[in-house]
Design goal:
This is ComEC/Rec2 family competence protein. It is a single chain. This protein has 775 residues and is α+β, with helices and mostly antiparallel strands. It folds into 5 domains: 90 residues; 104 residues, Beta Barrel (OB fold (Dihydrolipoamide Acetyltransferase, E2P)), CATH 2.40.50; 280 residues, no CATH class; 37 residues, no CATH class; 141 residues, no CATH class. The chain has 25 helices and 20 strands. The relative contact order is 0.09.
């Protein structure tokens, strides 16, 4: 956070006495003289009685820590995975190489110091081991992500490119619901021809070629852009994602794709495409798209309105093959194989059926992962499922915190960048919540088997399922709010019905229909599958239409998110009364969230889009109301608003002409004068300088002359290229920028913002540089 003042400019001094001004030197000197005599003696005595001055007290403190760590037992091990993830997250938070080096040096120094000092007396083996192992795990996490960033990160192209490209197709993803195909193509960098890069190109259906498959050599005219940095502070960082996915640019095809040399299909690619096409022939519309997503991982056939309804109802996780689907396939295979093999007495007497069944389930799980495209979240899920199968075959608990920690440890070593992504956080938080809840003594006692009527058992299991859904929703809400600025209030209730419907009805019916199709008898099964998916979509639309179904929040800071994460982990990973101390940071984070307010002004990184979030209730005032919903959605999410979008020139308090808009806002005990450019017309320098002199904040998507000197901030293209998007808090007179959260990571490149598009209203200026009244 920095003061709301540009370099070289000064804010007008507020009237009245500044409550935060320093005392006069004479007063300060007199105050210092009063710390003498009796007061000085009392201060000296207090310092001498401090714990660090009393070896006995310090020893008792260390003894208490040693006893705590020694008595923790198996609760200690999962914290190593937390330490590894903390080290990875710290690397992302810290912004400069010297800070990363200092972090590693500090952690290694702490480990060495603890080993040296605590080993002298030999009295604290558990505390010594805990400090050393946690420090080394954190250092390993930071070193791992730093190493992967250096070795695998793909720098973006220098600037936007437009022209003909020739390259080899790396992957192809068809999206029929959106009328396009997404190709990842390996080409030569248009600005550094010795470098081979990968670019992602969206190809409209009319310009696509069916033979442009993996391995094909193609030629196409395309417009390429560097991967986009966050549009606003706290927004989605696609540039970081592209860095680790080795994408140097994204773009759109503007000519038909010409296939110069056909490619070779992978082993499972024809099966995946034919399976998806077969399902869509039997099920039309979004039900067919969802069924194809379950069976082959192809999400392209789901209509946009249905996908929005699934998102707003908290069911969007069902649309991508992830832990739920992998667990359902592997679990069903294991149980089915175990029951069927048990019918063969000769085999059951000679082999350990759990091990055989686990092997069969592992094979099916791997095959399902490969068939659905082996996306990183699916691979993470199947890796965790493999550990569960190993535990089951060895007679250990199938789900435990230690097993989850082992899975997380393996995932973070291979994909350390996933720690800061929503997929990793949501999946592991959901499973950890389930394990923690069902490991609690009251829940175990309530869910224990007993002799009772069937209806009573069904009610009891339904209650457990409902409580589990509510607990998962509560655990995931901070993560969803942090990444997406929105959360569904009724998601837990929707998931209580949707997850069993998907797991025990839809997916088995899809498998049954495909099996019966071998004999030409799959029609009834497809009809039942379609009915279950229509019920799922109907449920999603019903929940999404309810008042308050979606709650919007402004951008949550990293501090509040850290409170939620630390409190949740403390509550979940300990099994003694000390775990309840985790409620304290959770309450602190909740209070932080309750008092969260949106920024007054939001400025996009290119300066084209400016939004005012606090001028009108339930309405976001925007300088430009373009045809694309991308900017509107980003501005609304960052402001935590889901209300009406009002163009600024229709607001009674704004004064707008073709070239500029002027606005006055009373905040923080003063009146702020804003001046915003609407066109690229070059006004006379004198009029521009006069207009800027009468403003506190000037915003433009182009370069402004040096003679434009507002009182506080000149957010033109020259500044925004260095800072990225901005969020202004006029009450506190502070600025947050995208650059603050980026540091010197490889994916952040100041000064490479794309040139703003020419205004459709551009013309030679005929009038004054600013609206009347602001001269």
């Amino acid at each position: 956070m920095s003061g709301l003042a540009a370099p070289g400019s000064a804010s007008p001094a507020p009237s009245g006495t500044d409550a935060f001004s320093a005392p006069e030197p004479a007063t300060a000197y007199a105050g210092s003289q009063r710390v003498s005599g009796d007061s000085s003696n009392r201060l000296t005595a207090a310092l001498q009685q401090a714990p660090w001055r009393r070896p006995a007290a310090l020893s008792r403190l260390v003894d208490g820590l040693e006893h705590f760590v020694a008595s923790a037992g198996f609760d200690r091990a999962p914290w190593l995975a937390v330490a590894l993830g903390t080290g990875i997250a710290a690397w992302f938070v810290l912004g400069a190489p010297w800070q990363w080096i200092a972090l590693l040096a500090g952690l290694l120094g702490l480990a060495g110091l603890a080993a040296m000092l605590l080993s002298r007396e030999g009295r604290f083996p558990y505390l010594r081991a805990a400090i050393v192992s946690v420090a080394l795990a954190m250092a390993a996490g930071s070193a791992t992500i730093w190493t992967k960033s250096v070795l695998t990160g793909m720098p973006a192209i220098e600037r936007p490119s437009f022209g003909e490209i020739t390259g080899i197709v790396v992957s192809r993803q068809e999206q029929p619901a959106e009328g396009r195909t997404r190709l990842v193509v390996a080409i030569r960098d248009p600005y550094a021809h010795q470098r081979i890069i990968r670019v992602r190109i969206n190809v409209p259906a009319a310009r696509d070629a069916a033979s442009a498959r993996e391995g094909a050599l193609i030629r196409v005219r395309a417009r390429l852009m560097p991967p986009a940095a966050p549009m606003l502070p706290g927004g989605s960082d696609f540039a970081r994602i592209a860095w680790f996915q080795q994408l140097a640019a994204t773009g759109t095809a503007i000519s038909p794709v010409a296939v110069l040399q056909p490619g070779r299909d992978g082993l499972l690619d024809p099966l995946r495409r034919s399976l998806s096409a077969h399902i869509r022939r039997n099920l039309a519309g979004s039900p067919g798209g969802i069924a194809a997503a379950f069976a082959s991982g192809d999400r392209g056939g789901i209509a946009a309105n249905d996908e929005d309804a699934m998102r707003d109802s908290g069911l969007t996780h069902l649309l991508s093959v992830s832990g739920l689907h992998v667990s359902a396939v592997i679990g069903a295979t294991y149980l089915l194989a175990l029951r069927l093999l048990a019918l063969w007495p000769w085999l059951a007497l000679r082999l350990r059926l759990p091990i055989v069944s686990a092997g069969i389930a592992a094979f099916v799980g791997l095959a399902y992962t490969l068939l659905t495209g082996a996306e990183v979240p699916t691979v993470r899920s199947v890796a965790g499922a493999m550990l569960v199968l190993i535990a089951v075959s060895l007679g250990r608990s199938a789900l435990s915190v230690r097993m989850l920690a082992a899975a997380g440890f393996a995932v973070m070593l291979i994909w350390p960048e996933s720690v800061v992504g929503p997929s990793f956080q949501l999946s592991f938080a959901a499973v950890l919540t389930i394990v923690t809840l069902h490991g609690a003594a009251p829940v175990r006692a309530f869910a224990a088997r007993r002799i009772e009527p069937l209806w009573a058992r069904a009610l009891r299991h339904g209650a457990v399922l409902l409580v589990t859904g509510i607990a998962i929703e509560l655990a995931l809400t901070p993560i969803v709010l942090f990444h997406f600025h929105r959360a569904g209030l009724y998601g837990s209730f929707a998931n209580v019905l949707a997850i069993p419907l998907t797991t025990f009805v839809t997916m088995p019916m899809i498998a049954t229909a495909l099996l019966l199709d071998l004999f030409g008898a799959g029609g009834p099964a497809w009809w039942l599958t379609g009915q279950s998916l229509s019920l799922l979509l109907g449920m999603a639309h019903f929940v999404a239409r309810q008042p308050g179904a979606v709650t919007m929040f402004p951008t949550m800071g990293q501090g509040a998110f850290a409170l939620f994460v630390s409190g949740g982990l403390w509550l979940a990973l300990w099994h003694r009364r000390i775990r309840y101390w985790g409620i304290v940071p959770l309450l602190a984070g909740t209070l932080w969230l309750a008092f969260l307010r949106p920024p007054d002004v939001l400025i996009s990184g290119d300066g084209r889009h400016v939004a005012f979030a606090t001028l009108a209730p339930d309405s976001l005032l925007m300088l430009r109301d373009g045809r694309s919903s991308f900017a509107r959605d980003n501005l609304a999410e960052s402001a935590g608003m889901d209300g009406q979008i009002t163009p600024l020139d229709q607001w009674p308090g704004a004064r707008c002409n073709t070239d500029f808009c002027a606005l006055e806002i009373t905040k923080g005990g003063r009146v702020w004068h804003f001046l915003m450019a609407r066109s690229h017309n070059q006004a006379p320098l004198g009029e521009t300088a006069a207009a800027c002199a009468g403003a506190d904040v000037v915003i433009a998507d182009r370069y402004l002359p040096r003679s434009c000197r507002p009182a506080v901030l000149k957010a033109d293209r020259s500044l925004l290229e260095q800072t990225g998007g901005m969020a202004l808090d006029l009450t506190e007179a502070t600025i947050r920028t995208v650059a603050e959260s980026q540091g010197q990571h490889g994916w952040w490149r100041p000064g490479t913002s794309p040139s703003p598009r020419a205004s459709s209203e551009g013309r030679a200026s005929q009038g004054p540089a600013a609206p009347a009244g602001n001269q």
